[in-house]
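Why does residue order matter? Because the sequence determines the fold. Keep that principle in mind as you read this record.
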Amino acid sequence: MKRRYLTLFCFLTLTLLSHHVHARSAGKIVFTSSRDGDREIYVMNPDGSKQRNLTRHPADDFDPIWSPNGKYILFVSNRDKVPDLYLMRADGTGVRPVFKKLTPREQPTWSPDGTLLAYARPDKNTIETAISTGRGAKQLARISFGRGYPAWSPDGMEIAYGWGQSMDIYLINVYTEAAMVLLKGRKMVMKHPAWSPGGDKIAFVALKWPQGHVGPLRVDDKMTLYVTTRDEARVTHLVKERIVNHPTWSPHGDEILYERKEGGRTQLYKVAVTGRGKPIRLTTKGNNTDADWFDAAALPVAPKAAQLTTVWGEMKRQ
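Structure:
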């Protein structure tokens, strides 16, 4: 009898473990690819399989990001001559502009409840926020060179972004607009902040400022991947490879996607947050960038993004 129960216990344990592993590898990754000659929005499985073009448009489409509930994709397109924000369903249908008046807007990010957007204004060197229906835009922060790459914290309170010729990362409170420098005094050139799903860590790319160096510094071919705790107590150098950009977390917080340039092309990789094991390459054709990962299994039991259906309905009525 004991042997029978032991066999049943082992079977159930293996079943649960296999389900857990499957759940962790589920979801979809959206990204930008130039394999068709122009930039298009693609999706793929987390293992790199089943890569599919969603936009199929002669214009450039890029900077995609999932809505918090995974039903929509926000992205940038110059299909109406100006690079601005567009929204489409997760299957690529129903493409429409977010704002009535076209203005250069790039690098979008959602608030965790889906009601607000933040984005860079390269023409003004600012970061703005707006209601996700395209109303109520207001300036939140100044940036330089139009490249702030804002990232909204999971608790909705802060936005991380890059700023200044020294390429610091700032954290700004969305409500009070009080800002602080992340890892101040570390003498690092940093950009592309990305919050972990729990909000307790921030991934970024950086290089340590060379001792005694004065003047301009070529940084893009030296950047590599780091992770810091939100309280700045621990900074981890995650990968040794150089020419790394644009990290983004897996929905469960156990892996990080990033871009790596090699042989004149940029490809997507993923690596375990523990740093164990070799990075896994996910793409091979063209240049592949701007990845974002969604998995419905990682959503809270009571999702806060239910109003997104209403948002789509309001946009259709505009």
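The longest strand covers residues 188-195.
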